[in-house]
Amino acid sequence: TGRIKDVIILDGANVAPYELEWIAEQHVDMDGGRAGAFSVEVERREVPVLVVECKAVPEPEVIEAVRQQVNTDIAPLHDLVFVRRGTLPKTSSGKVKRGKVRELYLAGELESLWSHKTQAPA
């Protein structure tokens, strides 16, 4: 039931968070870290956010590859955030608690190593 609530609805289409997380895993050396994807509301629209654990901030071309693939395959990414490995709250089985990550993000309580928000469309 908790995982069903994790579904991201973008312009009427259901997107599984693991689709965004998988993209991060393909490009970023997460060194055993995890990723968490969720949506936030910006100007009455749901937009995706991707938070990725890593040892160090990836090279700019890696960051751009993640953004580009998410933008092309799924939807324009509102924010891409890199945090230190071990930062994201997890269940006892090691799964990222996406809802809790979203709460921390919205409260400004994620200690990001790097973040880049896309400006909302006018």
Please give a structural write-up.
Helix content is 31%, strand content 30%. The chain is α+β, with helices and mostly antiparallel strands and 122 residues long. The protein has one domain: ANL, C-terminal domain (GMP Synthetase, Chain A, domain 3, 2-Layer Sandwich). The strands form two sheets. The protein has a four-stranded mixed beta sheet, with helices on both faces. A hairpin with a 2-residue loop joins strand 3 (35-42) and strand 4.
What brief labels describe this structure?
two-stranded antiparallel sheet, GMP Synthetase, Chain A, domain 3, single chain, globular, alpha+beta, 122 residues, 4-stranded mixed β-sheet
Number of H/I helices:
4
The CATH topology name reads GMP Synthetase, Chain A, domain 3
Secondary-structure element pattern, one letter each: HEEHEEHEHE
| Helix/sheet category | alpha+beta
- The shape, in one word, is globular
As for the number of domains, it is 1
Range of strand content = 25-35%
Let me know the CATH homologous superfamily.
ANL, C-terminal domain
- The first-to-last residue Cα distance is 36 Å
The CATH class assignment is Alpha Beta
What is the CATH architecture descriptor?
Answer: 2-Layer Sandwich
- Strand arrangement within the widest β-sheet reads 3-4-5-6
Approximate helicity band: 25-40%
Largest pleated sheet: 4 strands, mixed
**How large is the radius of gyration?**
13 Å
